[in-house]
Amino acid sequence: MPRQLPLRELTRATFRGLGDRLRERPRLRTTAAVFTTMSALAATSMLSAPSVAEPYSAAPCALKRTDAHHSEGLDTWNAAYPRPARSLDAVMVFLSFPDSTPLTSPAVLTADHFPATSRFFERASYGKFTLRAHPLGDWIRMPRPSTAYAIQRDWQPVHRGAYLRDALAAADARVDFSRYDVVYFVADPDAPGVDSDATKVVNLDTPLRADGAEIRRVVTVFEQHPPDRLVLAHETGHVFDLPDLYHRPVDGEGDWDTYVGDWDLMGSQFGLAPDLFGWHKWKLGWLDPRQVACVRDPDGTRLTLEPLGAGPGVAVAGAAGAPAFGLGGGTKLAVVRTGADSALAFEARGRIGNDAGACRDGVLVYRVRGGAESGRGPVEVIDAHPRTEACWENSVYPPLADAPVAAGESFTVPGEGVRVEVEGRTTSGAWTVRIATR
Questions:
Q1: What's the helix, strand, coil split of the chain in %, to 5?
Q2: How far apart (Å, rounded) are the C-alpha atoms in residues 359 and 262?
Q3: pLDDT in tens, 211-245
């Protein structure tokens, strides 16, 4: 049986007739007051670029954002998504059903995800982003049995629409949605019709309106108790315009983790080194421009890369193995532009922070494509040791577990002619590398 991951965004849903059932009431809070049609777009579907984009990176190695859903281009920020460069507030609404009495309290289910989710983002962002959870203290009853919604991973639009419509209507009297940046609908995990593999992000082509605010996406949580590791952090990554990095086989058979293995949460929530790629941290605004080096000298550029997970107060093993502090503000990412829509990225990964369980330390190399859609290989890790694998007992994809270039090694990227030499470690724990573009 292939391993099934509850990390899927919706394929497509159209909810009609809601305008007739939920009319706008002046001066009263109402859910979906002015929407008649919603479309939920998948991670692998096309999403038109919004008319308004916020300028972001002017670096010569920054790829341009394209119309691809969750494009890895980062010259502009997609203003349809909340930008996690500040504190954001998330509401957790707990939904029960007439055909089941909850066996777990909202407080226990909240503890399944928080503070772990907030801590992941705090470490990943070097303290620049805080996700504040605001869970309701009790259950909100849905009007229909859980089995009536036919909940499953590839949900039928009519059932999915009924679920969202009922959830929003049921919660509207209790929740002022204008106060929140992120919405989590958490279903009773013990209800007979709940399928944990159906946890998804619903992206709305036409946003809902509630309490005077637009709701463009909702995280529908169907996790069992206890849940899969870091599942909510993964889904929340989609809320911030990050793509799925796993490979979903056409027939559902085969390995899901061939693109990035353990090396980014958006590839696998079970990864040994789930910290977000440096490219994603750049996209989200967590790396300053001075922390990204655009490498263009064909004869070679020597630079010092700080470990991606190093931040204020984080101990890093130095060259002699002794802990060293003070890293966090130096270069985190080196980029070589390889085409109009492609680049190679280089970053130092080690067993610190979110990567404490990493299989191997070293300089990780990966390819980024700005025009590749979510789920179709926008990022691919390049294996510096293609003939070996490692950590087979707990890696999600052992062939890539030893992908980084280790100290004292050199590696030429196949098909690109770009060569990286990892010369060693500094006493502070940083990595000295030389990158040549020919």
A1: 15, 30, 55
A2: 9
A3: 888 888 999 999 999 999 999 999 999 999 999 99
